[in-house]
Amino acid sequence: MGDTVTILGLESSCDDTAAAIVRVRGGAPAQILAQTVQGQGQLHAAFGGVVPEIAARAHAEKLDLCVAEVLRASGLGLRDMDAIAVTAGPGLIGGVMSGVMCAKGLAAGAGLPLIGVNHLAGHALTPRLTDGAEYPYLMLLVSGGHCQFLRVDGAQHFTRLGGTIDDAPGEAFDKTARLLGLSQPGGPAVEAEAKAGDPARYGFPRPLLDRPGCDMSFSGLKTALLRTRDAVMRDQGGLTGQDRADLCAGFQAAVCDVLAEKTRRALAAHPDLRLLAVAGGVAANHTIRDALMQVANDAGVQFLAPPLALCTDNAAMIAYAGAELFLLGHRDDMTLAARPRWPLDASSPAMLGSGRKGAKA
Ligand code: KG4
Ligand code: ZN
């Protein structure tokens, strides 16, 4: 087998059930041989957020179907795999357990090694899967469940430089959309409205910019949006389309300024990092993406945003991270546990509670 490894990866830590087969050949770009992601959006739509019980049940029902699908699509069998990699945390515990149980069954049945992968490591290593990025680099992970800066020095070597102390920015976008009667997921809806808006009409706060370091806060921003909306409605008896667009533009500009300034600080504090990579659904936002690209340009570092399908939750990133761990000699066994919390950087643990999308390490 030499330095070619083929890994089946499973992901079920939130509301996407996913499987993928990734092949890594020494020196060559990694190949995604097959992948599938089954979202659960419709199952949770009526509840305004992910319902952990429903998610876990759906994962348990869908995982083996996803595995069968990627094996069929790749034309490979389990005997062609070198290992089974699975998200072992952090995330909603029922979903993570579904994945770990499925992976254990496959590994035991096929006599394959088992590798537990940290979901955040999957995101953080994606620039290596998609573009062969070299260590070290700066990763900004911004989604509905995550928000953190990671210095990535190796597949098992992450330093958390800062992150949100409350909500993730995607959550704030979703809440803003809800408050303004826009559709879910809120990010794309708010971004579309903001196009016609004046970002300067309402002065939203830029939380924590007055404090040093890379920590961020977004929950006050959504409260500010609620107060401003209520004040406008009280004064005018309702919201016009322009008011809504201006509120969206003002909110988006505030999130953008905070992310850009904190990224500037992270790069300034780590001048040896020559690459800024982003991942997570919020990285799809053009205003935010452009601002981050500008920050990277100003600092003279490369900017990398992987294709959106690999920025959001998927199993290719888990299979890829599993391949890197496998090549480093890492193996788990049947005692592998599902972990609701699992900070990537144990020396700098998360300050967060468990949010809408599960534990945010
Ligand atoms: O990474 P992701 O698909 O799932 C997890 O959160 O794990 O991210 C989804 C989040 C949602 O909160 C969504 O509103 C946000 O990313 N999002 C955006 C945009 N597209 C998706 N936020 C801002 N602008 C966008 N264009
Ligand atoms: Zn994720």
Note the topology.
Layout: E1 4-11, E2 16-25, E3 31-39, H1 41-44, H2 52-74, E4 83-89, H3 93-110, E5 114-118, H4 119-131, E6 137-142, E7 147-154, E8 157-163, H5 169-179, H6 186-194, H7 219-236, H8 241-269, E9 275-279, H9 286-299, E10 302-304, H10 308-311, H11 316-327, E11 354-355, E12 358-359
Parallel strand pairs: 1-4, 4-5, 6-9, 9-10
Antiparallel strand pairs: 1-2, 2-3, 6-7, 7-8, 11-12
The site of zinc ion has 6 residues, from helix 4.
Question: How would you describe this structure to a colleague?
Answer:
β9 (275-279), α9 and β10 (302-304) form a beta-alpha-beta unit. With 361 residues, this protein is an alpha/beta fold. The protein has 11 helices and 12 strands. α2 packs parallel to α3 (93-110) and α8 runs parallel beside α9. It has helices at 41-44, 52-74, 93-110, 119-131, 169-179, 186-194, 219-236, 241-269, 286-299, 308-311, 316-327, and strands spanning 4-11, 16-25, 31-39, 83-89, 114-118, 137-142, 147-154, 157-163, 275-279, 302-304, 354-355, 358-359. It is 43% helix and 20% strand. The chain binds 5'-O-[(R)-(carboxyoxy)(hydroxy)phosphoryl]adenosine (KG4) and zinc ion. 5'-O-[(R)-(carboxyoxy)(hydroxy)phosphoryl]adenosine binds next to α5 and α6.
Helix content: 40-55%
SSE order, one letter for each helix or strand:
EEEHHEHEHEEEHHHHEHEHHEE
Separation of the first and last Cα atoms: 35 Å
Gyration radius, in Å:
21 Å
Key attributes of the depicted protein:
361 residues; 5-stranded mixed sheet; 11 helices; 43% helix; 20% strand; globular; binds 5'-O-[(R)-(carboxyoxy)(hydroxy)phosphoryl]adenosine; binds zinc ion
